[in-house]
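User: Fold this one for me? It's Lipoyl synthase, mitochondrial.
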Amino acid sequence: MASAPHARRLTAGVLSASSSSSSLLQSSFTRRRCFATTLPEPAVKPQSQPQPQPSSRPATSFSNKLNAGPKFGDFVSGKEEALTPDDALELRTAMVGPEGRKKQITRLPAWLKTPIPNNDNYKKIKKDLRGLNLHTVCEEARCPNISDCWGGSDKAAATATIMLMGDTCTRGCRFCSVKTAKAPPPLDPHEPEHTAEALKRWGLGYVVLTSVDRDDLADGGARHFAETIMKIKQKSPSTLVEALTGDYAGDTDMVRLVAQSGLDVYAHNVETVESLTPSVRDRRATFRQSLDVLRTAKLAQPGLITKTSIMLGLGEKEDELVDALRELRNVDVDVVTFGQYMRPTKRHMKVEEYVTPAVFDMWRRRALEMGFLYCASGPLVRSSYKAGEAFIENVLRKRALHRPDVAVAAAEAGLARKEL
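Assistant: Here's what I get for Lipoyl synthase, mitochondrial.
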């Protein structure tokens, strides 16, 4: 039997253990109860939504600029005040770039802005082009006039510029956005037939055929070009055909082949004045070689209308333009057009000057005074811009002075006979 002191110690130990166990149970119960109280209660729909508290974060500088700028309604309201003539011709500048590296640029003038194309004629032409695997310089060169040319008031008034022999050129002119390669894909043998079929569907009064340069081909693609013209004339005799060709690397036999294929207008662009040609065009293209092309075409088919185009805004000088016009008249070029050079991408040469409409009008008058049959001159004029109107309203009218009976009848019927 244990002694009293020992018994007291044993009893105290049991009581202590019991107390410890009770404490552990109490602690466990407390944890379970606390855990239970933290479970989410069923959601109860509040009687009223609390008002959002205003953010304490200050507005950023970008937000301040955005709030101070024009609202969406300013762009769609159509209530802009008309600009005065002086304001419309004013060239505006802007500072662009990050802080510390800002540079001044000239904004695109108002007279160079054009509408987004969206009409039935435009949609039909675009759909047919994709279906027949045809290309146009209107799209490839990003022409600003595509809305006007493809969307004429009726099909006979619409014009299109078909680009033959694919969409890849063997040359690399610094102003042109058409793709380039040393060896483009082979020619599509069905392209002449498809092109003629498309033009028959559209019923266009005037069409311009152009092409990429194909220096990889022995004939430069001249036979392919001539075959396309002949098929168009077979399917659509009333369609006026203008051929805007390359220089065929100076092969005048190929120029004659195209000139005698049945076309109505032979066009070849000198693009710029002689002094700027090396820096603007591909090194294989020269001003003198272009003059030879235009001279050869005129001699190969007497009565054939020859045409060229010059871009302004590349840094040309007035006396250089006058000299270029004299050279063109010396080879009996009939039609010249002036248009504003517009930089297609940052990889291309920059615009040196935005020429005002008044200056373009001055060059139109000077060209006519020098003896050109017709001159289209304006910021948005391109080599094939509104070609049908330019040809019918100006060339045939002037020729009607000599043979009014035939010319007037041809104009009324929408025909242009080669004997005019």
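One thing worth pointing out: The first strand starts at residue 93 and ends at 96.
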